Amino acid sequence: MVRRRKRAIRRWRMPTILLLTAFVLALGVTGWWTLTHWRPGRAQFPVQGIEADSDSGVIDWPGVRAIGARFAYLDATAGAFAHDPAFRRDLGDARTAGLKVGAVHRYDPCQPADRQAANFAAVVPQDPAMLAPAIDLTQTGDDCPVHVTDAGVERELMTFINQIEAHSGKPAVLKLSPQFERRYRLAAKIDRKLWLTRRMLQPDYAGRPWALWTANPAARTEVAEHALGWLAAQR
Q: Which of 50, 65, 106, 122 is most buried, most CB within 10 Å of its CB?
């Protein structure tokens, strides 16, 4: 009797384990799809767009507009010397597809502001049709080879802001990462529109309203080889 019972237990145990495993895998796939494809609702955020760079691969720009994007921010320059090799190509293609386009500079607190501004001006056209320039503030000055004070970071950043605003003719947008804002608390010190990041949930770490929101920093779409940043805008 005992042996018969053990055999019966073994007979249903394996199918049950397989069923549970399949269920967990299905949940995982569903969760992954939701995370990578999620976008904010159109009713609340009718104006949406993307952020792209050379890592995004080949982009079908008419397709970008077809899936609901109305603007694009393209990574253009970084620090005093680097520039994104896809910027000029994507700028022309995105405009041809009917999207408004802006340029992003990845700011480096370890490098002189005037050299970074010169790099930006050499790559980004002086064109009133461009959206306001955006400054990606992710890297802090804590690891600079030469020590930079907090006051020095803020002073050099303001120099950079003034110079690229003179080039573009528009107030810059501060793309503040959570770690940069925690470190320097610039949202309360610099009166510029904010671009914040938080997956799926509206960000509030800057203490005041945002103008741009990276709602999905690694959005998978049918119009790009690799992930794009999916953005929502509000006034």
A: 50
Measure the CA–CA gap between 84 and 124, rounded to whole angstroms: 11
pLDDT tens per residue, range 6-20: 565 566 655 554 444
pLDDT in tens, 160-175: 999 999 999 999 999 9
Cβ neighbours of residue 41 under 8 Å, at least 6 residues apart? none
In this prediction the pTM is 0.86
Scanning 124-171, the segments in alpha helix (DSSP H) are: 150-168
The class level of CATH for 42-233 reads alpha beta
Instruction: Give Cα separations from 49 to 156, 166, 168, 228 (angstroms).
Output: 30, 26, 21, 10
Q: Quote the CA–CA distance of 105 and 167 in Å, as a whole number.
A: 13
